[in-house]
Amino acid sequence: MSIPKIVAAGLEKRYRSARGVDTLAVTGIDLTINAGEFVCLVGPSGCGKTTLIQMMCGFEHPTAGRLLIDGAPVPGPNPDHIMIFQDYGLFPWRTVLGNVEFGLESQGMAKAEARVRAQETLELVGLCPAAHKHPHEISSGMRQRVAIARALAVEPSLLFMDEPFGAIDAFTRLRLQDEILRLWEVKRTTVVFVTHDLDEAIALAQRVILMASSPGRVQRIVDIDLTYPRDRTHADFTEYRRVLFEEFH
Prior knowledge:
By secondary structure, the protein is an alpha/beta fold. Helices cover 35% and strands 27% of the residues. The longest helix is centred in the C-terminal third of the chain and has 18 residues, at 170-187.
């Protein structure tokens, strides 16, 4: 039986400018995401993808409606719910290993235990050879893998990813997509992944949540009934791309 991890009902977010003008960012969001599920939020710029994921993270608060995680309201950020951004957020003065250790130390883990856990996680993402390098000494793709390792090390129950591969070259992006899928299949962490790339969404997600703009809202939810790893040249993959693309028009 599927267990709801995130439940949104009638969710709405309004912003008020300094001049007192209201902007309706998202409205009428009804959505259930199950524990261990991998979902992608897709839509054009300005459709509220980032606003929605920030409400789920607790960085923003809904104006109306209900948002529950594990059956409870979201009062603010939760150390068990980790966000990975496009810009990595690494500490330049810390080594790769030190960056991964940071989240564990912040949770109060003893240094020796944090070192062991961090090394195990770096092995999981294939970064042990770079453990003692600093972020400026490694590639952008490796830096994003460090950010993923830092998130996974604390074993979150929820992993939010806001266009994490958007600034990375196409070849590295494909490799990182394969990497995050492999890690998800091992950990079965609930993943909510924001992207504007239809192919990326179809390659990764069990369900694609297609959003429309003005105001932001859920337009359609598409179950992706394809086995992993997914062949982007297969006719079924192409058909999902056609269906989602047509929804934009």
